[in-house]
UniProtKB/TrEMBL annotation:
Pathway: Purine metabolism; IMP biosynthesis via de novo pathway; 5-amino-1-(5-phospho-D-ribosyl)imidazole from N(2)-formyl-N(1)-(5-phospho-D-ribosyl)glycinamide: step 2/2. Residues 65-169 form the PurM-like N-terminal domain. NCBIfam families: purM (TIGR00878). GO terms for molecular function: ATP binding; phosphoribosylamine-glycine ligase activity; phosphoribosylformylglycinamidine cyclo-ligase activity. Residues 181-346 form the PurM-like C-terminal domain. It is an enzyme of class 6 (ligase). InterPro entries: PurM-like_C_dom (IPR010918), PurM-like_C_sf (IPR036676), PurM-like_N (IPR016188), PurM-like_N_sf (IPR036921), PurM_cligase (IPR004733). It is found in: Cytoplasm. This is Phosphoribosylformylglycinamidine cyclo-ligase. PANTHER family: TRIFUNCTIONAL PURINE BIOSYNTHETIC PROTEIN ADENOSINE-3, TRIFUNCTIONAL PURINE BIOSYNTHETIC PROTEIN ADENOSINE-3-RELATED. It comes from Georgenia ruanii. GO terms for biological process: 'de novo' IMP biosynthetic process; adenine biosynthetic process.
């Protein structure tokens, strides 16, 4: 059986992949990437693999490597709709690096991956510059990355981003459930907004209500789109401050991402203990209440999906609470006592969460009502 031969020779470019555009994107981004490189980085931009000198690990008694990978979910759809791409990188770094610091690890390096239907050099460079800016904030070299052009799989203006990071922590300094004790205090660190979780719900609410991203909302002080693209707050510097502070005894950290406050806090508690969280200790930021009212979203669904204004929680020894609050506030982040840890009496109910995300850990009880103004 014979097959017809195309009249015009087929090339990679004709198939929709522009390697020259990829090269231009690298040229536009490489200065921003290079600016994240610490003295330990070996080599430059563009190698098959990034290299970092870890000779300092010889000073550890038993170094453990911590690793994490993540993306930013459907928040990229908002960035694409608004044609604003320089902030999404902050979200990516927050989702990845702030998961590593939860165990007390110091980030050593980060890599990124961008898949797109068509490489537009300026757009790719904007994304990577955002990643690099955030890496600089958390002191982590952006050691490598990949941009892949997938015509036919993704639309011309579509893309997705993912990243991975590696950190190190001394084995006897790992934070987590094993350290948590009755009487420990929960110190909340304020979120900068929606961060990077729950956007499928938020986008659906806006769609059903017929609200566009360009709509100005007085209670937000800006447009819907601007609010939704507010970058995820980066907690790594303040968390490392807490770990290093001799006046603060940190037992655990919880990054409040998908699943909300209770589900993520329960992951860092041991069986037999329960964290009691008082909902009235903070005011839920306006964007969350807007989503609730606009979509008639029940509070239980809202609190199980969005962070509601709490981005990170430090579980500290009772005598460390004041010093922890001062350290967080010194970094310009609002902080407050959210509740405390006690014995788990085994009680169940809609306000009690335990056994989340595959972790057979402790429980969290949410009490009181949310304040919205």
């Amino acid at each position: 059986m014979t097959h017809p031969t195309p009249d015009v020779p087929l090339t990679y470019a004709a198939a929709g992949v522009d390697t020259e555009a990829g090269d231009r994107a690298v040229e536009l981004m490489k200065d921003a990437v290079r600016a994240t490189h610490t003295p330990g980085v070996v080599g430059g931009v563009g190698g098959f693999a990034g290299l970092v000198d870890v000779s300092a690990l010889r000073g550890y008694r038993r170094p453990l490597l911590a690793t994490s990978t993540d993306g930013v979910g459907t928040k990229v759809a908002v960035a694409q709709a608004m044609d604003v791409h320089h902030t999404i990188g902050h979200d990516l770094v927050g989702m990845v690096v702030d998961d590593i610091v939860v165990v007390g690890a110091r980030p050593l390096l980060m890599t990124d991956y961008i898949a797109t239907g068509k490489v537009v050099p300026e757009r790719i460079a904007d994304i990577v510059r955002g990643i690099a800016e955030a890496c600089a904030v958390v002191g982590t070299p952006l050691l490598g990355g990949e941009t892949a052009e997938h015509p036919g799989l993704l639309g011309e203006h579509e893309y997705d981003v993912a990243g991975a990071a590696t950190g190190v922590v001394e084995a006897d300094a790992v934070l987590g459930a094993e350290r948590v004790r009755p009487g420990d205090v929960l110190v909340a660190m304020a979120a900068s907004g929606l961060h990077s979780n729950g956007y499928s719900l938020v986008r659906r609410v806006l769609d059903v209500a017929g609200w566009g991203y360009e709509r100005a909302v007085p209670e937000l002080g800006r447009t819907v789109g601007e609010e939704l693209l507010e970058p995820t707050r980066l907690y790594t510097p303040v968390c490392l401050d807490l770990v290093d502070d001799p006046g603060v005894d940190v037992h655990a950290l919880s990054h409040i991402t998908g699943g909300g406050l209770a589900a993520n806090l329960a992951r860092v508690l041991p069986r037999g203990l329960r964290a009691d969280v008082d909902r009235s200790t903070w005011v839920v930021p306006p964007v969350f209440d807007l989503v609730r009212r606009l979509g008639n979203v029940p509070w239980p669904d809202l609190q199980n999906t969005l962070n509601l204004g709490v981005g990170m929680v430090a579980v500290v020894a009772q005598g460390s609470a004041d010093a922890a609050l001062a350290a967080v506030r010194a970094r310009g982040i609002e902080a407050w006592v959210l509740g405390e840890v006690g014995e788990d009496d085994g009680a169940a109910g809609s306000d009690v969460v335990r056994g989340t995300k595959g972790v057979d850990g402790g429980a969290v009880r949410l009490r009181g009502g949310y304040r919205t103004s």
